[in-house]
Design a protein that fits this description.
By secondary structure, this protein is α/β, with parallel strands linked by helices. Helix content is 31%, strand content 15%. It has helices spanning 19-22, 33-49, 117-124, 136-149, 166-178, 188-195, 218-223, and strands at residues 10-15, 54-59, 102-106, 128-133, 153-157, 184-186, 203-204. The chain has a seven-stranded mixed beta sheet with strand order 3-2-1-4-5-6-7, sandwiched between helices. Helix 2 runs parallel beside helix 6 and helix 4 packs parallel to helix 5 (166-178). The protein is globular, with a radius of gyration of 17 Å.
């Protein structure tokens, strides 16, 4: 596959695609489990077919709670989620990393905080990140902001993200789109088409704060991306 120019220095960051968030019995289940599995797999498969490096992030806390935030602890001192070496903290089986993929384990929302992510990206010599993942307004959003502050160009795959409610998800994506300098927002199917050089649609950033959303128009604005 011959990559379009915009994808030649690109890496993928898949944020916290873990059982704790995807499975209904997990500690922090999302509202759109089935859609997320389907669209994240579409995105991952397309990026692998294009030969792009894929970096998974994984929330990974010591079972004793020594590296967790106080608000993330249960009464017995054990973390509420992301407990290291438990099935709940593993990447979902339908989205699991392959041998060539990279893994960054983290203890805070942003995958850039006190991890080796920035070193990996520097070594990969990329300037563009395709990003999607879980807890749109928390771990995903903070990781995107930290990527923006480091001058990466960002493509968000909006239907491969998820969180507790649809409204929380939509407003988080709109918040990011409002300040996504030199970035874009796509669906997983459109990302696949773009990587294959086929016709596709994508929203691209033109000006800050373009989406003055209200409770009445948040869905229509989100759908316009």
């Amino acid at each position: 596959m011959i990559l379009r120019e915009e994808f030649k220095r690109t890496a993928v960051i898949a944020v916290d695609l873990q059982n704790d968030c995807i499975e209904p019995e997990g500690a922090s289940p999302i509202y759109n489990r089935d859609e997320l599995i389907r669209e994240a797999k579409t995105a991952l498969d397309a990026c692998r077919a294009a030969g792009l490096p894929i970096i998974y992030t994984q929330h990974w806390l010591d079972p004793r709670g020594v590296d967790a935030l106080d608000i993330d602890l249960q009464s017995d001192g054990r973390p509420k989620n992301g407990v290291a070496d438990t099935p709940a903290a593993e990447i979902h089986i339908n989205l699991k990393p392959e041998a060539q993929d990279l893994l960054v384990r983290k203890q805070r929302f942003s995958a850039f905080y006190n991890t080796n992510l920035e070193l990996l990206l520097r070594r990969l010599d990329v300037d563009h990140l395709i990003m999607f993942g879980i807890w749109t307004e928390a771990c995903f959003e903070t990781t995107v902001w930290d990527a923006i502050w480091r001058d990466y160009r960002i493509t968000i795959v909006k239907d491969a993200c998820g969180t507790l409610t649809e409204l929380m998800h939509m407003t988080a994506i709109l918040d990011l789109a409002n300040w996504l300098h030199a970035g874009s927002v796509v669906t997983a199917d459109n990302l696949k088409n773009a990587l294959e050089g086929a016709p596709h649609e994508a929203w691209r950033f033109e000006r800050p704060s373009a989406f003055a959303y209200t409770l009445e128009n948040v869905r229509s604005l989100y759908n316009s991306l």
